[in-house]
TrEMBL record:
Belongs to the short-chain dehydrogenases/reductases (SDR) family. Keywords: Oxidoreductase. GO terms for molecular function: oxidoreductase activity. Pfam families: adh_short_C2. This is Uncharacterized protein.
Length: 142
């Protein structure tokens, strides 16, 4: 999963000092999982549930930005990709499946719970990222 490519760099969260597209993408996916976990804790007992979802490799127009090497690799990977409708299934599942209500904050792929890296389960980093996000937004979550 893409979140395994990333690390959270709190001192360079926008990758202004050092940018690499794959690492930035991985950081964004890792941040998504960490923020989902944090939000789930804050929304506990409110009736609102949240989930981090991996849709799979979905055929989108993102390939229009790929270089020739990646386009060649895409040709090999394409048979294993999903349509937009197929990619949306896990998101829909998490939104409508009542059995998931007690699993808010979970990470899902292919309409079932999925494992994530140790970094994605780091509650201390999740809190630091939450605090930084609130600071950047100029808000205080109580």
């Amino acid at each position: 999963m893409a979140h395994s490519w990333g690390t959270i760099k709190l001192d360079d969260i926008n990758s202004e000092r050092s940018y690499h597209s794959r690492r930035a993408y991985g950081q964004s996916k890792l941040a998504n999982i960490l923020c989902t976990r944090s939000l789930a804790k804050r929304l506990k007992d409110t009736g609102v549930t949240v989930y981090a979802v991996h849709p799979g490799i979905v055929r989108t127009e993102l390939k229009r930005h790929m270089n020739l090497g990646l386009l060649c690799m895409w040709k090999m990977v394409r048979p294993f990709t999903k349509t937009a409708v197929q990619g949306a299934q896990t998101l829909i599942y998490c939104a409508v499946e009542p059995a998931l209500d007690s699993h808010s904050g979970g990470y899902y792929s292919n309409c079932r719970p999925s494992s994530c890296t140790r970094a994605a389960r780091d509650d201390e980093m999740a809190q630091k990222l939450w605090d930084l996000s609130c600071q950047m937004l100029g808000m205080n979550w109580e």
